[in-house]
């Protein structure tokens, strides 16, 4: 009897809830389309004439010598963590886990914010994903090294012609970003990949950019990214409805084993953006969070300080005063395209990296941020 009297109310609630879901879905799709065109238009630019780009042979020679000097010096255990703690004190926690651990539900801080700063209201879905991943740390052979050197390889055009490939391959941990290719550019960027760090839209579409012993570190910027990474781990097709939430084509398959997948600890992004870069606290809005998200590159640098004893950079630096220079080492986009993007605070990030390099915390092997070797005749 109670069920009979409750039916009209339940039906009304059901229809109301369905309408709300439809409106929310439509809103998300519209916002997604707007974001897609914003990002697309921000990088629509005239292509650079690469034949007119001059490679400075003296700079190339100095860069190669400098990289060799860095590698030959004695590795200093825990150096970069000590220096980061000195520079940023309580803003930097040297004990932060680089990747999300299986016992994630014991870490309350990770659920304070929504992605990319946390997994608010996503604990069950996150745990389901973690149950599929056998490991949550560096590869065992690398973890056992008494002193590890990291190099974060950026995608900047400054790498073009530097021929740093051999030197980059000598580092213990080589971190590559998004879909930056190795195939065809090994002389300049090497071919060793310990970590490929990216988000769904940035993952390489070519299976040749994944390596049998490398880690795939997923950076999750939105809740739907959890569906994508779970499909990649389980080697399943991505549901059609999920595809609507990505602003560009995403990889249909990541050809690595489940033991090679890692989830970046969102506390690393929070530490980078809110603590170190001092971006404003994210606030909830109608379709998400009001936030200033750091680039994958700057996040990778902070991640490297948690993984290794010493850290170097290569391929970083946007010289906005040279609009006709090459933006990436692998395409012919001009630097002028960076003037149109509004998603990242490139100026703040550059100042942060300059501080790290000038203080001797990290080394800039290509000289795109602060060229230490340009000013010296010997080291």
Concise synopsis of the structure shown:
The protein has 379 residues and is of the alpha/beta class. Helices cover 36% and strands 9% of the residues. The chain starts with a helix and ends in a 15-residue tail after the last strand.
Characterise the protein shown here.
- The protein has helices at 2-42, 57-72, 79-88, 123-130, 140-143, 165-168, 186-189, 225-233, 240-243, 266-276, 296-307, 346-358; strands at 149-153, 173-177, 195-198, 215-218, 261-263, 283-285, 288-290, 310-314, 362-364.
- The chain is an alpha/beta fold and 379 residues long.
- Strand 2, helix 7 (186-189) and strand 3 (195-198) form a beta-alpha-beta unit.
- Helix 10 (266-276) packs across helix 11 (296-307).
- Mean pLDDT is 85; it is low at 1-45.
Query: Sheet with the most strands?
Result: 7 strands, parallel
Structural class: alpha/beta
The CATH topology of the largest domain corresponds to: sialyltransferase cstii, chain A
Q: Ends: how far apart?
A: 88 Å
General form? globular
Q: Briefly, what CATH class of the largest domain?
A: Alpha Beta
In terms of per-residue confidence, which ranges show pLDDT below 50 for 5 or more consecutive residues? Answer: 1-45
How many individual helices? 12
Transmembrane segments: 21-39
EC number: 2.4.3.9
Family: Belongs to the glycosyltransferase 29 family.
Organism: Eublepharis macularius (Leopard gecko)
């Amino acid at each position: 009897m109670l069920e009979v009297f409750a039916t009209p109310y339940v039906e009304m609630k059901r229809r109301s809830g369905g309408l709300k879901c439809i409106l929310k879905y439509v809103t998300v799709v519209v916002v997604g389309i707007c974001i897609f065109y914003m990002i697309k238009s921000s990088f629509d630019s005239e292509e650079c004439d690469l034949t007119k780009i001059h490679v400075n042979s003296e700079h190339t020679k100095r860069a190669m010598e400098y990289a060799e000097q860095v590698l030959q010096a004695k590795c200093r255990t825990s150096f970069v963590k000590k220096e980061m703690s000195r520079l940023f004190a309580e803003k930097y926690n040297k004990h932060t886990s680089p990747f999300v651990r299986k016992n994630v539900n014991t870490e309350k801080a990770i659920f304070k914010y929504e992605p990319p700063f946390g997994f608010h209201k996503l604990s069950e879905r996150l745990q389901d994903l973690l149950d599929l991943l056998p490991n949550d740390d560096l590869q065992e052979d690398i973890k056992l090294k008494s002193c590890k050197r990291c190099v974060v390889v950026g995608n900047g055009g400054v790498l073009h012609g530097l021929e740093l490939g051999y030197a980059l391959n000598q580092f213990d941990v080589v971190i590559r970003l998004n879909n930056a290719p190795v195939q065809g550019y090994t002389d300049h960027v090497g071919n060793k990949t310990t970590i490929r760090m990216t988000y769904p839209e940035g993952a390489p579409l070519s299976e040749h950019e994944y390596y049998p012993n490398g880690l795939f570190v997923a950076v999750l910027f939105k809740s739907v990214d959890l569906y994508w990474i779970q499909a990649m781990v389980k080697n399943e097709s991505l549901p059609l409805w999920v595809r609507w939430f990505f602003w560009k084509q995403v990889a249909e398959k990541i050809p690595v084993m489940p033991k090679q997948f890692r989830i970046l600890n969102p506390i690393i992004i929070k530490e980078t953006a809110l603590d170190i870069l001092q971006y404003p606290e994210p606030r909830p809005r109608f379709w998400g969070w009001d936030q200033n998200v750091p680039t994958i590159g700057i996040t990778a640098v902070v991640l490297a300080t948690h993984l290794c004893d010493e850290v170097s950079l290569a391929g970083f630096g946007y010289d906005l005063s040279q609009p006709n220079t090459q933006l990436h080492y692998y395409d012919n986009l001009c630097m002028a395209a960076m003037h149109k993007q509004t998603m990242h605070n490139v100026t703040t990030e550059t100042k942060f990296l300059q501080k790290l390099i000038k203080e001797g915390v990290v080394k800039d092997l290509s000289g795109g941020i602060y060229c230490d070797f340009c000013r010296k005749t010997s080291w």
